[in-house]
């Protein structure tokens, strides 16, 4: 009796070689769609021009996410418009910033803020990063010394968040956030930066570095597709739930249905 083939696998589908890479901060950029498809599923508008850089805008038009690989140095730019509670802010991440770490910040843009006060350093300390003061700067470095997070206080009075990763050969990336970038977004970023979980890269897309560890895995295209679809489905479900909650929220002002004399008011 022949073993029944799972219907998600096409006839003759061949497994492809991929690699799990650790630490994730040195895994290279990855597939930009990891970020963009989640935002699209969360109701963001894709305003990219055909053949041009990625450009997406939040449903309320207050935040824009762009990725431009066609200019130097290129990479990610995330810009938040000033509102009543906070000023204008921006984040800039180089092209080799892993998309899984970038998504820590961009995914958080689609979710409500937590009621708890954010703490950028807590996720790093939980993973045994070394935190300390260096002059006017507060710094955290990963246990292997390849990644860092720093709050810089410059002599001219300016400040910024500065982060990145670099191996001994000088390969890596940097990123910086303006000081008024919402703290919950910086914490979401630091959580993914510090995560010990490896990330997956296809053969030929693994950086040449003596400081990364890799494990070869065989993955069917349908499996990759299913994993990607699960992330998109989760984004759609969360967006639907938020929209439904807003639409069913009771009105804050009572609506008069009848006048004091018993006659209905005109609507």
Please describe what this structure looks like.
This protein is of the alpha+beta class and 267 residues long. The chain has helices at 33-41, 99-108, 122-126, 183-194, 221-248, and strands at residues 16-22, 45-46, 54-57, 63-68, 75-80, 89-93, 130-134, 137-141, 147-153, 159-166, 172-177, 199-202, 213-219. The strands form 2 sheets. The protein has a 10-stranded antiparallel β-sheet, with helices on one face. A 3-stranded antiparallel β-sheet has the order 12-1-13. Helix 1 (33-41) runs parallel beside helix 2 (99-108), helix 1 runs parallel beside helix 5 (221-248) and helix 2 (99-108) packs antiparallel against helix 4 (183-194).
Radius of gyration: 23 Å
Main sheet strand line-up = 2-3-4-5-6-11-10-9-8-7
End-to-end distance: 72 Å
- Output the helix-strand order: EHEEEEEHHEEEEEHEEH
Query: In the residues, how many domains can be counted?
Result: 1
- Kindly state the mean pLDDT as a whole number? 89
Based on secondary structure, the structural category is: alpha+beta
Helices, by number, come to 5
| Low-confidence runs | 1-9, 253-267
Kindly state the number of beta strands. 13
Main sheet overview: 10 strands, antiparallel
Which geometry do the CA atoms define? Answer: globular
**What share of the residues lie within helices?**
10-25%
Please indicate the percent range of residues in DSSP E strands (runs of 2 or more).
25-35%
Protein name: DUF317 domain-containing protein
InterPro entries: DUF317_SPDY (IPR005523)
Pfam families: SPDY
